């Protein structure tokens, strides 16, 4: 006997996993259609149970369609990258406090041991600097650094500190060591989650930058919905709005600046590389969020294209715009011709004679002269008129003044 299935892919999986022969053809499709139409009479369930059954089935189908899986939950990535950034800040603060605190007792050690983890382990093992010559640092420090540390400890200018102080400093060193180990463990966990959830994105920009992009967008789906131009400046929103407000140049990159491909480019090419990388990253994100394929697929091809573009920009190779676009342009060096150039021939010059004025031009000139004379005459008449009016005004004023004076004199005469 064979098992009738509605989906050919499901039949292949059953055959592969369980070894059961499956049947899928037109007859099976018609049979399944008949079962669906007569589902109520075949099951004979109460209305409430039937509703619960339909609801559960619809939820199961929806989960299957959305490929719901705990491995695809990007919330863990958002939390992990946030914790990683906080751990880096805390570690830096703790390590600087250890250096400053122990520096009172052994100040020269800061220059000898530069790594924070090595410094914390050395202080924890050594305690007081006088113990340095009797302690083996071979599992902590390289041979040359160990030798220099022991020599420097004998001639140190640091102050003496109590045993209780050393104990507290060593407790802080233990905290630094534990945090560093946990940070490394968290980074490995984040890498594994990123490679499981967004392998193409991780291949394009790296695990840390990819995780920061997802965290900044809110989720992998939100990042997949964003266009390449948004991915390029994601993280530089403050600079973007400031540039738009002040009408200055907008930023060329945001979080994507920390990707290794952008870091390899020269400063003048960073904008071009970040633009191309953002376009390929947007495609990679959509493949990770909505695609069915597992592992790195479009990320490989996208990274190769960005690397090729980077080599092209760094090498400065010219490309033809038309024809075969991939072929290099061959530019020949200019060679000066051996024969002397042609000498100047004055006989070949062409001269022009003064052209006679046309009658129309003469009429225009006469008309312009007449208009000029008329305007001049009108201007003179206008000036005379204004002058005459001013003279009449002055005469009137004089008459009024004389009349006023005569009136005053008549009032001043005695009776």
Quick synopsis:
The protein is mostly helical.
Keywords:
extended, single chain, two-stranded parallel sheet, 415 residues, mainly alpha
General description of the model:
This protein is an all-alpha fold and 415 residues long. Helices cover 67% and strands 1% of the residues. It is built from 18 helices and 2 strands. The chain has helices at 8-18, 26-37, 39-43, 47-65, 75-103, 109-112, 116-126, 143-154, 163-197, 199-205, 207-217, 220-225, 228-233, 237-246, 260-264, 270-290, 298-315, 359-412, and strands spanning 3-4, 22-23. The chain has a two-stranded parallel ribbon. Strand 1, helix 1 and strand 2 form a beta-alpha-beta unit. Helix 5 packs across helix 7 (116-126), helix 9 packs across helix 11 and helix 16 runs antiparallel to helix 17 (298-315). The protein starts with a strand and ends with a helix. 19% of the residues are buried. The model is unreliable at 317-326 (pLDDT under 50).
């Amino acid at each position: 006997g064979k098992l009738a299935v509605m989906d050919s892919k499901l039949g292949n999986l059953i055959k592969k996993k369980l070894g059961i022969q499956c049947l899928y053809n037109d007859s099976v499709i018609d049979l399944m259609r008949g079962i669906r139409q007569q589902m109520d009479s075949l099951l004979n369930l109460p209305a409430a149970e039937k509703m619960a059954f339909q609801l559960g089935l619809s939820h199961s189908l929806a989960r299957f369609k959305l490929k719901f899986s705990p491995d695809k939950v990007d919330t863990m990535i958002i939390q992990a990258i946030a914790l990683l950034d906080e751990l880096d800040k805390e570690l830096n603060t703790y390590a600087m406090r250890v250096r400053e605190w122990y520096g009172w007792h052994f100040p020269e050690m800061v220059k000898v041991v530069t790594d924070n983890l090595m410094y914390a382990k050395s202080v924890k093992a050594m305690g007081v600097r006088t113990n340095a010559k009797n302690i083996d640092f071979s599992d902590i420090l390289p041979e040359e650094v160990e030798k220099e540390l022991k020599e420097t400890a004998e001639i140190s200018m640091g102050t003496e500190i109590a045993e209780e102080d050393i104990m507290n400093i060593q407790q802080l060193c233990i905290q630094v060591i534990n945090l560093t180990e946990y940070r490394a463990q968290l980074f490995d966990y984040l890498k594994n989650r990123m490679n499981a959830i967004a392998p193409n994105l991780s291949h394009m920009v790296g695990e840390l930058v990819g995780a920061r992009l997802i965290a900044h967008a809110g989720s992998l789906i939100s990042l997949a919905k964003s266009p390449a131009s948004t991915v390029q400046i994601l993280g530089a929103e403050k600079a973007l709005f400031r540039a738009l407000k002040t009408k200055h140049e907008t930023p060329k990159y945001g979080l994507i600046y920390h990707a290794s491909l952008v870091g390899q480019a020269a400063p003048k090419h960073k904008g071009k590389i970040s633009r191309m990388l953002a376009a390929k990253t947007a495609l990679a994100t959509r493949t990770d969020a909505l695609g069915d394929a597992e592992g790195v697929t479009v990320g490989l091809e996208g990274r190769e294209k960005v690397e090729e573009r980077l080599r092209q920009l760094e090498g400065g190779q010219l490309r033809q715009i038309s024809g075969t676009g991939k072929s290099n342009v061959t530019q020949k060096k200019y060679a000066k011709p051996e024969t002397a150039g042609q000498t100047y021939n004055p006989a070949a010059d062409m001269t022009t004679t003064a052209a006679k004025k046309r009658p129309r031009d003469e009429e225009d000139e006469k008309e312009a002269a007449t208009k000029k004379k008329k305007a001049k005459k009108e201007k003179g008449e206008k000036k005379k008129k204004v002058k005459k009016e001013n003279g009449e005004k002055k005469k009137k004023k004089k008459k009024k003044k004389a009349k006023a004076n005569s009136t005053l004199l008549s009032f001043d005469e005695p009776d």
